[in-house]
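pasting for the record
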Amino acid sequence: MNTMSPRRIALGVGVLAVAVVSATGLASSALFTSQDTSTGNSFAAGTVVLGSGNGAAAFTISNTELAPKVTKYGTVQIDNSGSLQYRYAMSSASSQTKALGDHLQLKVVPIATGATCDSTAVANGTVLYSGALSGAAFGSKAAGADTGDRTLNAGTSEVLCMEMSFGNDTAAVDNAFQGGTDSTTLTFDAEQTLNN
């Protein structure tokens, strides 16, 4: 004798029907697809390359050339040989005797490449720094745009005209600097302007 009730048979057929419908639903979700590729993508990081005339000195003044009332001129060319625009700043460090670097005065102005660096250029130029040689600086090497920073496009350069003068004070003041020496290193720091 069969002990299965008609109710159990109907329940079994219902579960089977749901399973068949579910399987059919999965099989009918086919999609048309397509794919293409983008080849040849290449990436190269930009460069920030600051040059300052291969580290050449703007001034070399001997003790036979430096005395009160003397003014000397020199230049430093700043080159951007990188691939990115940058901003740069200048700082200095002096090693001196008799506080000579504190007494010598420096003015820095940008001039056109090939222009003469003289009193006319300094008088007519935009002064980036004016003060004691020992504290010469403009801009800031801190990240981001700062007051006094200079911007230079990739592949270009600019010339900084520098006027160094020994003041004309009284003999009592100037005599204190006789035999004094100074060696000043000008440091130029650059950073990218892109996203900065």
